[in-house]
Amino acid sequence: MDETKKPLRVPPAFGVYAEKHGIFDLYKRVIENIVIDKPEEPLQYIIDYLKRENDDVHQICILGPPAAGKRTIAREVCKRLRVVHITPEALVGDDVNPVAKQARNIVKSGESIPVEVWVSLVKNRIKSHDCIKKGWLLEGFPQTRAQAQAIQAEGISPKHCVVLEAPDTVLIERVAGKRVDPQTGDVYHTTFDWPSNSEIESRLVVPEGITEESMVNSLVEYHRHTADVLRCFPKVTKKINADQPKADILALVLTFLNSTPRTAAPHTPRIVLLGPTGAGKSVQASLIANKYNIVNLSCGALIKEAIADETKIGEAIKPYVERGMMVPDNLVMKVLSDRLSRLDAVSRGWVMHGFPRTREQAESLKDANLDPNRVFFLDIPNDSVMERLVLRRTDPVTGERYHFLYNPPRTNEVKARLHQHPKDEEEAVKKRLIEYHAYAEEIADFYEAAMRINADQDPHTVFEFIESMIVNPLPKKHGED
User: Fold this and answer.
1) Whether 459 contacts 363, CB under 8 Å
2) 0.85 exceeded by pTM
3) Hey, CA dihedral for 454, 457, 461, 466, is it positive or negative?
4) Which family, according to UniProt (predicted)?
């Protein structure tokens, strides 16, 4: 056979390797930084960039009105994620940077610091070695749309923007009890967060300029600008209610910060749907495949196709199917490997159901470099499965399918001629449920990162959850680079 006419096969291992090591995301970050920094020597820039210990660090902004708890949450986040904490006060108070001295002189004269000075201060700090290596958290900045647009023009944009929100009445009440440790800069409150250490308690002071009138003016100023600022970061912003315990706020913030924003880097979905018979795996696979133009693979259908096409593997499988026996895993893997190596599956991605059913089969997928990057368990009670399947009927005249509860026949004449598929008989369904649950625990142990979904609800509700986990990158663990 002419080699040029053979079907194109792309080893699936290429895509698995690239995704495992973040190659596509790395390309995206390198190109993005080259466009922003515009180096005179792009090749040397790429070499230096790749030599960094970690090029994908946290870049965070924490915004919010006065007394929302920005300083407290920012310090806790910096401890957990080991990023550099940057505040407007620290930028202006820098004794080394001459621009900071200029900013202090402007403040002493009673004027506002110009946008270009703020940008110079922020850029100088963020381009320093510790911020490049560890990442950074910018607290309370930008405060205006002009500042936000100016830092974006310099290539400075947060990957996550946290906005702490609380009613103005709560914030005004909070500020009355606010106390500051002049030695460490830590913020405390007479009611909500009083220090247990008597030494710290003895040195707490009331911050200067804290009055109800000044607080109201600050809130008016904040509300005037905040909507415009947030329009600059629409896809990376998360609003969090700050009128709750500190531990709850911190947990919500960390969860958001460890989520990965959607990226322009190529992503090829390789999805496996697991669950008992009647859980809706084929329905969900069809919805996913139709919306995202990926290949819908049913293990049972592939085996039937191989037999119908009279391929060598199909001929080997045929005796097992005719006798109602389980097809050996090695033959099933040959069928799957052949289909998953085709160009459409490798380039567009795939969603598979009906395989694997045991831990050994899951290990075979991994050994063949066909392991999925998303695994979903569709959980549903046995009673719901029986209700879904046992009450199904088919009209042999029209081919229409009915269900005695969800889609009953309209006339007694139609009802009288309905037939039940042998696979939907009660004993057959019970047998398949027993077979699934016999291996469910061991396959769940193998796919530890799999997501579990309550499949005993509307199919489109289930699909929305699956879809959200497909299009968004998987969240990182706390502190994971």
Assistant:
1) no
2) no
3) positive
4) Belongs to the adenylate kinase family.
Please report, as a single letter, which amino acid is at residue 132: I
Give me the residues paired with residue 238 across strands: 162
pLDDT digits (tens, 9 = 90+) for 63-117: 999 989 999 999 999 999 999 999 999 999 888 889 999 999 998 998 999 999 9
Common-topology check for domains 57-165+209-257 and 270-471: yes
CATH number of 270-471: 3.40.50.300
Question: Running DSSP on this structure, what letter comes out for residue 342?
Answer: B
Quickly list DSSP for 84-139: EEE-HHHHHT-SS-HHHHHHHHHHHTTPPPPHHHHHHHHHHHHTSHHHHHHEEEEE
d(CA 262, CA 260): 6
Map out the domains of the chain as residue ranges: 57-165+209-257, 270-471
Backbone dihedral region for residue 189 (phi beyond 0: left; psi -120 to 50: alpha; all else: beta): beta
Q: Report the topology of domain 57-165+209-257.
A: Rossmann fold (3.40.50)
Q: Token pair for residue 92?
A: 């202006």
